[in-house]
């Protein structure tokens, strides 16, 4: 099945059963309940919000999850924030790349993390001021995204 056709089916599904981590994220983005057919997941956000159930390969657990999802009303999941992003990362990346190509340099500022970090700011590029990138001298990059435009509740993911 071609991927665009799969996404169309997934977006209109009552629920999905999968062992794929990517499908778990897609289902969450479509607000489609997911039943994960493996013993664990590296994407616990859907589980904590009730939109994903780990059934492993246990048919009884899968049937119970389907019954649980059937009891929900349409739209019950619409108000959940998407922990995987807002769907506009590609646009932000494209704008950043275009600015980088036009200017040939990144804007550097002092990081709130301290003098050992260099802040590469994309604030002037993005309308919502939500994406900042930190580079440290040790070769790690910490990508921080504020939970609001007020700059409170910072979270960081370190990539080595």
Describe this structure in words.
- The chain is of the alpha/beta class and 160 residues long.
- The protein folds into 2 domains: 3-71, Rossmann fold, CATH 3.40.50.2000; 104-159, no CATH class.
- Helices cover 32% and strands 19% of the residues.
- It contains 5 helices and 8 strands; from the N terminus they run H-E-H-E-H-E-H-H-E-E-E-E-E.
- Strands 4-5-6-7-8 form a 5-stranded antiparallel sheet, with no helix packed on it. The protein has a 3-stranded parallel sheet with strand order 1-2-3, sandwiched between helices.
- It is elongated.
- Mean pLDDT is 72; it is low at 117-160.
**Radius of gyration in whole Å, from Cα?**
19 Å
| Uncertain stretches of 5 or more adjacent residues | 117-160
What is the second-level CATH architecture of the largest domain?
3-Layer(aba) Sandwich
N- to C-terminal separation?
A: 35 Å
Percent of residues in β-strands: 15-25%
DSSP helix fraction: 25-40%
Q: Output mean pLDDT.
A: 72
Strand order of the largest sheet: 4-5-6-7-8
Return the structural class: alpha/beta
Integer count of domains? 2
- Following the backbone from N to C, one meets helices and strands in this order, namely HEHEHEHHEEEEE
Globally, the shape reads elongated
- In CATH, the homologous superfamily of the largest domain goes by the name Glycogen Phosphorylase B
């Amino acid at each position: 099945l071609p991927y665009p056709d799969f996404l169309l089916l997934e977006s209109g599904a009552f629920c999905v059963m999968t062992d794929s981590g990517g499908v778990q994220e897609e289902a969450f983005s479509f607000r489609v309940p997911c039943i994960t057919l493996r013993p664990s997941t590296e994407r616990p956000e859907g589980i904590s919000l009730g939109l994903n159930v780990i059934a492993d390969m246990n048919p009884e657990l899968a049937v119970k999850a389907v019954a649980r999802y059937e009891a929900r009303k349409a739209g019950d999941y619409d108000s959940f924030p998407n922990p995987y992003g807002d769907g506009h990362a590609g646009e932000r990346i494209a704008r950043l790349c275009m600015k980088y190509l036009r200017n040939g340099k990144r804007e550097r500022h002092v990081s709130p993390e301290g003098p050992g970090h260099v802040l590469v700011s994309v604030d002037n590029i993005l309308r919502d001021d939500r994406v900042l990138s930190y580079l440290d001298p040790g070769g790690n990059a910490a990508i921080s995204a504020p939970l609001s435009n007020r700059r409170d509740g910072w979270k960081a993911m370190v990539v080595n």
